[in-house]
Amino acid sequence: MTWTAGYNNSIAYTTGYYHEQSPTFLNACLAMQRVSPPSLEKFTYCELGFGQGLTSLILAATHPSGDFYACDFNPLHVLGASSIRDEARLPNLTLLENSFGDLAQGQVELPMFDYITMHGIISWISDETRTQIMRFLTRYLKPGGVVQVSYNAMVGCAQVLPLQRLLMLGAGEGGDAWTKASGLAAKMVNLDALRFRRNPDSQGRVEGFATQDKRYLVHEYLHEKWTPFYFTDIAREMAEAKLSFAGSARFAHMSPVGWLGERQREMLETVTDLIEAEELRDYFANRVFRSDIFVRGKAPLSDLRLREQAEHVHVWGNPAVLYQAAVKLEHATLTRGEAFHKPLFDLLHGAEMTLAQVFDAPEFPGLSLDAILKLLRVSIAVGETFVRYGAVQPRAAADRLNAVLLTRAEQGEALGALASPRLGGGATISVLDELMLASLYAKADPVKALTGDIDELVARVSRSLIATDLRLQVGGAEVSPEETTTRLRHIFEDSGEKLIAHSEGLDFLPVQKTSKRQR
Ligand SMILES: C[S@@+](CC[C@H](N)C(=O)[O-])C[C@H]1O[C@@H](n2cnc3c(N)ncnc32)[C@H](O)[C@@H]1O
Q: Whose CA is nearest to atom 12 of ligand 1?
């Protein structure tokens, strides 16, 4: 066995930022599911398998009071993330080129952790490697500590298993494995293999391959050990490490879910076992992916304790989203009654509030705390409302990281997310927005620059496009190089202010820069 233990390392993993791993966010998830969260005053954090490292970089930058560790056995990943960390001067992030086995055996001196998170790990590794992770959790998680783990869920993924096997068959040895793998799958679909006709989800996946990032696809499917899990199996393994299920890291999945039909709800009410009920919900929703939170020592929040925690949970409206009564939640469309959902939307679009203030708002007379939590969870799930646990942290490190990420984007290495102190984490951003923001970021007054320095801004973005070999696209059509400058000028004129306001809303830009705006 090589150091990869069956893990496919032929292509470096795509970058992604996963907010579900943010301590600030996880604490809000816990409090809003009535579980006591750890203190964020001073804490230790470990990410297992950090890939390109964007999540740990952003989290370390936006949580200066945390001591962050992240490990990945791929030296290329450690090299890439270390160079950004050093350039952004993030003293609270230690990057380890170690395997989970090394850590589980205590080969590296580590503190006990308040948070251990892993995204995109356990469904793609061997049983032996998963056992090492469980040993690591047993050994290094503090009492009261939190584990976040995401994985492919068996219920929805069951019909994908033969597709994954077929892709592995097609990939074979050497050459461009993904081209060969997807070629074989497409051929089978085209030859009308009954397997695909009878399993439309698998067929849809094959048809969607052409539009997806190849690096993601290789890491999703071309692993010897592609394993979806039943929730109950994961919960059992976690229980052996003294970890209890505390809820979901996805607001859409939190119970009681908004989409349950009357008869489904009645049936679930007869199920007293929390773990079994959770798995039954996977069947009702045919879930393909889960992001779970487990805790070592689950302290439930009484109404009194929930009210105390609610002082730390901050919620505010997303200005980019308009109210719609009908919203999509997992597989279902939910039509919301006007009585409370719309007043909540209006309330939070006025100002940032604590959850405690929402509990006491006159808009919700006579509603129980749980009923208000349910309203809010839907609003967060559909992207109307942002949530953060605790006060906004000092922003110096986040600004340094954003400056580095924007420069990297200009050099053709757009990572797709920036740090947001207000969110206690990050948020995604498109490449063009990143290049435009990079040109504005250097300006003392970005709004003024939109008129005063427009030629310079356009020239800078044009240069970035040439340097990164990217073509501007407008309305799906590629803009010719001769036309690019004129089009960029129009984009700056039409959308420059909106981009600045959006970046201000997401807190990518330092306040002192945007406060000069004359609005
Ligand atoms: C699918 S990627 C996910 C990366 C990152 N968490 C994300 O979601 O962007 C899995 C990562 O785990 C790392 N990995 C896999 N097995 C490992 C092991 N046994 N020890 C350390 N890292 C491992 C791989 O190098 C890879 O970067």
A: 49
Any domain includes 105: yes
| Final residue belonging to a domain, choices 267, 295, 323 | 295
In this predicted structure, what is the pLDDT of residue 275?
Answer: 96
**141 and 164: one domain?**
no
| pTM for the whole structure | 0.92
Query: Is the C-alpha dihedral spanning 411, 445, 353, 350 positive or negative?
Result: negative
The C-alpha atoms of residue 233 and residue 405 are separated, in whole angstroms, by 39
333 within domain boundaries: yes
**Residue-level pLDDT at 338:** 86
Atom of ligand 1 nearest to the CA of 72: 22
Domain carrying residue 384? 313-389
**Residues contacting ligand 1 via CB (< 6 Å):** 5, 7, 13, 16, 18, 49-51, 71-74, 77, 99-100, 119-121, 124-125, 129, 219
| pLDDT at 4 (0 to 100) | 54
Omega of the bond leading into 91 within 30 degrees of 0 (cis):
no
Sorted by sequence, the CB contacts under 8 Å of residue 484 that are 6+ apart come out as 462, 465, 472
* Number of compact structural domains in the chain: 4
**Ligand 1 atom 26: the closest Cα is on which residue?**
51
Which of 301, 302, 306, 422 lies closest to 359, judged by CA?
Answer: 306
Same domain, 285 and 325: no
Residues 363 and 503 in one domain: no
Asked if 145 and 115 touch (Cβ cutoff 8 Å), the reply is yes
- 255 and 134 in a common domain: yes
